[in-house]
């Protein structure tokens, strides 16, 4: 084993120990159990994940096997049987267990192993097996090459900064004979452990180089499912971003439409204000100005019958221009002075006599009198106009 592989394995073991010491495995085990209970009974067996440990014991020349944690033991068989017969008996004893989940542990009796409790620095947690090799000469009467051993951490309270561990060792001579019998029978085991009642202690006395490799056909499926889940997650995120962009685009379009509608409303409001201002202006002009019909009627009733008009004009400022002929033009000033619609009547130029009609031709200008209601209206209009 090269240094890179050893470093990688130590890092993997450290990660496994950190995961096992965390509360997450217990939580996921509880959660998975609750979810399995919701499935039909026929389906629940397919989702019981995890290794199933079976303990293989040898006593009096016979083998027996049972599940860890269950007291029921299979019928024993002799170690003198042929390899196919032993394999068939073992297979019948573990019926109902998926071969991919089956794990076999050679279970040793309590009096066959040596157990020592030691206290180590907390930094030794990541290299317990190496520490066990260093402590072998001090804690046991054996050398490292004479025993199969393992070191496990104990969950007991000790001084801060230190951990409690248990060194479990067994002479190789006591185990090699059984391992050889199993090898001849064609039975491969995954661990050499110690029995505590109907359970295993949880150590593996086999060295790492003797550990059996389990090809996991589910690994490809799990990797494929993990990749598919990741791809689906990315697709969901992409779809979410796409939907968000579509929503923003639709909202922006709605805002643009509302802005255009608001601009149209503002333009209509401006047109309405302009129209209202124009109509108000015309209304004020109508109230401020004197009707021309009234002015003509007033002139008709006041000028004498020997006078007629040839021209009559009123400009935007209310200035009146009167041109005509009269037998006597001079009295017209006095006639118009009593008018309530016309004021400031004066002759413009010289009065001349027309030789054809023998009448006096005149030109007169005057000013219309503004109504009394025009002043407040004009003042309010002037105050409202910027």
Q: What proportion of the residues form beta strands (DSSP E)?
A: 15-25%
Helix content: 40-55%
Major sheet characteristics: 6 strands, mixed
Beginning-to-end CA distance, first to last residue? 97 Å
Detailed description of the structure:
The chain has 386 residues and is α+β, with helices and mostly antiparallel strands. Among the domains are: 27-214, Nucleotidyltransferase, domain 5 (2-Layer Sandwich), CATH 3.30.420; 291-368, 2-Layer Sandwich (Alpha-Beta Plaits). Helix content is 45%, strand content 24%. The protein has 10 helices and 14 strands. It has helices spanning 3-21, 24-37, 41-44, 83-93, 128-139, 172-184, 217-288, 292-302, 332-337, 374-384; strands at residues 52-59, 62-67, 77-78, 102-108, 114-121, 147-154, 162-171, 191-196, 199-200, 307-314, 319-326, 342-347, 352-354, 359-368. The protein has a 6-stranded mixed beta sheet, with helices on one face. Residues 374-386 have low confidence and may be disordered.
């Amino acid at each position: 084993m090269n240094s890179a592989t050893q470093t990688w394995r130590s890092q993997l073991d450290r990660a496994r120990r950190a995961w096992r010491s965390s509360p997450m495995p217990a939580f996921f085990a509880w959660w998975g159990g609750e979810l399995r209970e919701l499935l039909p009974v026929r389906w629940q067996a397919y989702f019981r994940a995890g290794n199933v440990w079976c303990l293989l014991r040898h006593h009096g020349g016979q083998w027996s096997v049972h599940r860890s944690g269950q007291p029921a033991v299979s019928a024993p068989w002799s170690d003198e049987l042929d390899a196919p017969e032993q394999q068939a008996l073992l297979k019948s004893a573990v019926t109902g267990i998926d071969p991919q989940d089956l794990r076999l542990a050679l279970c040793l009796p309590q009096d066959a192993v040596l157990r020592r409790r030691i206290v180590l620095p907390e930094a030794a947690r990541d290299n317990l097996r190496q520490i066990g090799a260093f402590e072998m000469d001090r804690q046991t009467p054996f050398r490292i090459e004479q025993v199969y051993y393992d070191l496990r951490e104990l969950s007991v309270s000790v001084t801060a900064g230190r951990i409690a561990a248990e060194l479990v060792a067994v002479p190789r001579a006591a185990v090699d004979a059984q391992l050889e019998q199993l090898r001849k029978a064609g039975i491969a085991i995954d661990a050499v452990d110690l029995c505590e009642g109907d359970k295993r202690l949880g150590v593996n006395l086999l060295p790492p180089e003797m550990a059996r490799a389990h090809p996991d056909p589910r690994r490809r499926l799990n990797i494929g499912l993990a990749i598919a889940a990741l791809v689906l997650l990315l697709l969901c995120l992409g779809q979410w971003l796409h939907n968000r962009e579509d929503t923003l685009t639709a909202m922006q379009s709605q805002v643009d439409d509302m802005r255009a509608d608001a601009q149209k409303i503002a333009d209509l409001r401006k047109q309405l204000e302009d129209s209202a201002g124009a109509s108000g202006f015309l209304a004020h002009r109508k109230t401020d100005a004197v009707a021309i019909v009234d002015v003509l009627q007033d002139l008709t009733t006041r000028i004498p019958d020997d006078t007629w008009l040839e021209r009559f004009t009123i400009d935007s400022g209310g200035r009146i221009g009167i041109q005509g002929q009269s037998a006597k033009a001079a009295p017209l000033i006095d006639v118009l002075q009593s008018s309530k619609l016309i004021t400031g009547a004066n002759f413009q130029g010289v009065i001349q006599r027309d030789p054809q009609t023998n009448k006096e031709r005149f030109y007169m200008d005057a000013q219309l009198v503004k109504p009394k209601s025009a002043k407040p209206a004009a003042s309010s209009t002037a105050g409202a106009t910027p």
